[in-house]
Amino acid sequence: VRQPHVEGQGPLTTISADDLYYDPFDFEIDNDPYPVWRRLRDEAPLYYNERYEFYALSRYTDVAPALTDWQTYRSGKGSVLEVIRANIEIPPGVILFEDPPLHDIHRGLLARVFTPKRMSALEPKIREFTVRCLDPLVGAGTFDLIQQLGAQMPMRTIGFLLGIPESDQEAIRDRLDKGMNLEETSSEEMYGDGFLDGSMFAEYIDWRAKHPSDDLMTEMLNTEFEDETGTVRRLSREEILTYVTLLAGAGNETTTRLIGWTGKLLAEHPDQRREIARDRSLLPNAIEEILRFEAPSPIQARSVARDVELYGQTVPEGSIMTLLNASANRDERHFPDPDIFDIHRRIDRHLSFGYGIHFCLGASLARLEGRVALDELLNRWTDWDVDWGNAKLAHTSTARGWERLPVTLG
Ligand code: HEM
Asked: Taking CB atoms and a 6 Å cutoff, what residues make up the pocket around ligand 1?
């Protein structure tokens, strides 16, 4: 069904045409989705994929308001395309997959322990973890930025925050990674198998209950709150398990990918890299531009709660809508020269951490980790390049970024 384009820029279609097909599970497309996303923005700003039965919005002016309109675009059936399609039961407390009022109660609880103060107090620890990763590499001609740093430091950080012993962190990260990797797990299996129920953390909770410390798990065990029935109570073991799994899942892979994109983009832009090396006050904005340019979590999915009129079409209640925040970040209608990477760019708001009630709870932590990682890299090397022959993108359900990124050091 082709309809006249509202802005006179050629035909508008909501139906996948042979020559315009967007498939988030197609590895070829995932390698470089930007040309397809640009065509979606220009030719099919409301797009429909028949194979997986989802709609997609790709322009900034559509994605940003939809992210804030939680009444229409709901997360309660999941905010990951495969989760909604698989129709799985979601345990209470996975705030990513909840709507108000439950979302607000559970997010409020998490926000009480996940405070900005606690995050900024973590900086020395994040630095220590980063230094431990990088110091042994000084003098080496090459190393893998993901394996040696990106996959290590965020895991140590979230593990420290939660109170998971270092000796067990790797096994947990492997399980989380495997659960989300489309090359190892089918999307149907992905969220089954106890992945969301917290079973992998059960023994720690019991151990922590007997050995309190100053970590999040202990604090959650002691937190009292008013639940949806108005009863003041403590969190149940199951609820804590869910929170811990959520934080470990949400806080690990995305930050790993941010560190990878940092290495890649600054390898490609040596002048900007050297500028940051000389003037570290540029670090925060550089991290924002990296986040804008390559969103580690590029697609947010929603269930549509009422019929919605968009571009002259009706999106029926019950449909799946994907909000392509990574495409919105490159929308030329919003960001001038969006495909130019510029650490000096003034960014009012990129959508890489979402927007509205589900705005990333770990954004300040992720930014801090990104800054420290880049700072410490530049303390040791101001020149690096990527060994492209051996680099590999990870194809995972919710994140986009490098699985292997070998860098050669100058
Ligand atoms: C939510 C991205 C790091 C915890 C989100 C959302 C995005 C996002 C896009 C919104 C999802 C939606 O609207 O459906 C990222 C990126 C990160 C990152 C790109 C790293 C660069 C972290 C870290 C943590 C974390 C380090 C915690 C340790 C969460 C939680 C939510 C969330 C708990 C759910 C918030 C809610 O539903 O109210 N994140 N995240 N994230 N993120 Fe992050």
From this structure: 67, 75, 79, 95-96, 107, 158, 246-247, 250-251, 254-255, 258, 296-297, 300, 352-354, 358, 360-362, 365-366
pTM: 0.91
Mind listing the pLDDT tens digit for each residue in 187-246? 445 444 444 455 667 778 888 888 888 888 898 899 888 888 889 999 888 888 888 888
Angle at Cα 334 formed by Cα 333 and Cα 339, nearest 5°?
85
Mapped onto helix, strand or coil, the DSSP state of residue 307 is coil
Ligand 1 atom 2 nearest Cα: 353
Q: In residues, how long is the chain?
A: 410
CA–centroid distance, 364 to ligand 1, in Å, is: 10
Burial class from Cβ neighbours inside 10 Å (0-12, 13-18, 19+) for residue 14 reads buried
Give the distance, in angstroms, between the CA of residue 354 and the centroid of all CA atoms in the same chain. 9
Centroid of ligand 1 to alpha carbon of 215 (angstroms) = 20
**ipTM here:** 0.99
